[in-house]
Amino acid sequence: MALPAKLRIDGVSMSFATPGGMFRALDDVTLSVAPGQFVSLIGPSGCGKSTIFNIVAGLQEPSRGRVMIDGVDATGTIGRVGYMLQKDLLLPWRTLIDNIILGMEIQGVSLRDARAKALPLLRRYGLDGFEHAYPNTLSGGMRQRAALLRTLLFDTDVILLDEPFGALDAQTKADMQEWLMALWSDFQKTVVFVTHDVEEAIFLSDEIHVMGTRPGRLLESIPIPLLRPRERSVTLSPEFVAIKKRCLKLLTAAAPKLEEAA
Amino acid sequence: MAIQDAPRSTQLSGMAMAQAKRVAGKSARRLPVQKDWPSVAIIATQVLILVGAIGGWELAARAGWLDAFFWSQPSAIWKTLIVYFTEGDAWTDIGFTFRSTILGFIIGTTAGSLLGLSFWWSRNYAAVMQPYIICFESMPKLALAPLVILVFGLGVTSKVVIAVALTIVVSTLTTYAGVKALDPDGEKLFYSLGASRWQVFRKLVVPFCVPWIISVLRVNIGLALTGAIVGEFISSQHGLGRTIFYAGSTYEIALVWVAVFVLSTLAVIMYAVVSWLENVLRKGTRQ
């Protein structure tokens, strides 16, 4: 953590006025992500993970606090980070390549340049031969790959991934994790990853931030000291299992509060 | 577990067997199967029915079973048709009706689609406009036709206006339904990529709504034709509708049939062209 933070979420709170009084979605969340780091947010539903993402992406204004990117206040400004939502949101009327260049197109890059930049990446990252296919002809895994490439090609240093593999079957999910790791080490991006899957979070991350609900807040940050590149078998190592136990304990400790409140 | 289960399962299968026997005891029913005729047989039957109907009509009129003054007869209709096309105003009438229909269709559909799309820009504006649109939708627009004729005159303009009034509402409401069906996450994606409102509109809202816009084309061509014909009924110098009305009031029943026949042919041709257009557009937008 000696490096200056690439992304810093600084005392961010979010509350909404509801008929039943103020609802606090996020309470004073502060966290830093170093350049090139891969961090995960895990927590039960309603802990405000998606709200954090919306705030970092500038789609919602926080009630309090700031979002700093490269030490500059970026609160409430859009287009600073790549944001991949749970759904792939590929546009059905565009071919795969034209979907992937959407970010560049919006930024004003000419279609020809954008396509020229995207084509080698498509070929390299498992979508070779599908450049001109339409999304509805592709499998779930391929659509997700395309959505990820679209996020990566939108040239920002920080990318936010909101449960990108949540809807995939176990085998495809494992393939996609390896694929994501390859991409991450090639592109040197700073990644913030949201997932419900503790094992996935540990396998992929440098650090995990465990969140609790009511109000949504940061419970604990757990660094993952496992060496890279990681083999699939690392999930069976004692270190891995110990971290997993700790995370699950934190999550189950957070869960009963939900029942009390409900 | 398995041992405990064994007697139950034999019992069950025993019951199933008893039931099977009972079913066999009743007359067994088979899945109904329909055999398809070859398409030649279908077409032959269709032609036969048509020929039979026309022949029967002619025969009934000649034998005096049917009053030829009110119902006319195929041979007289055929003669009138030839006269209408060689000496009469057939082409003028067709051109007049066709022009007002097409103009009404194009203007109504375009304006309606643009109006529907415009509701995306502001929720407040959409909320303000909502009751007026609904009022205009539920109003029987043809009831206003005499007024339209008074204001816009006997020419093409008044017919186009009626056709527009009928088509614009359908297009507006359907396009607006498309706007409302837009996934908010799609907009979120665009904004996260730093898009402007105009970019979201052009690259997301419009292409997303195109299938909705296309889906009303066939309905609208029919409505535009209805509007044009009603306008001609009320008052007009030309047009198939005017010919039908005029022939009816002077008891030229054969001419009524001829004009109705020509009108139907025109309607079928326009419908076929629009259907083809719809398919082409649909393929172009991959929906």
How would you explain this protein's 3D organization?
The complex is a heterodimer of chains A (262) and B (287). By secondary structure, chain A is α/β, with parallel strands linked by helices. Chain A folds into 2 domains: 1-36 and 43-81 and 157-168 and 190-262, P-loop containing nucleotide triphosphate hydrolases (Rossmann fold, 3-Layer(aba) Sandwich), CATH 3.40.50; 82-155, no CATH class. Chain A contains 8 helices and 10 strands. In chain A, the strands form 2 sheets. Chain A has a 6-stranded mixed sheet with strand order 6-7-8-3-9-10, sandwiched between helices. A 4-stranded antiparallel sheet of chain A has the order 2-1-4-5, covered by helices on one side. In chain A, strand 1 and strand 2 (21-33) form a beta hairpin. In chain A, helix 7 (198-204) packs across helix 8. The longest helix of chain A has 24 residues, at 238-261. Chain A is globular. The N and C termini of chain A lie far apart (39 Å). Residues 258-262 of chain A have low confidence and may be disordered. By secondary structure, chain B is mostly helical. Chain B has a single domain (82-285), classed as MetI-like fold (Orthogonal Bundle). Helices cover 82% and strands 0% of the residues of chain B. Chain B is built from 13 helices and no strands. In chain B, helix 8 crosses helix 10, helix 8 (156-181) runs antiparallel to helix 11 (217-234) and helix 11 (217-234) packs across helix 12 (240-249). The longest helix of chain B has 33 residues, at 253-285. Chain B is extended. The two termini of chain B are 54 Å apart. In chain B, 29% of the residues are buried. At the A-B interface, helix 3 of A face helix 9 and helix 10 of B.
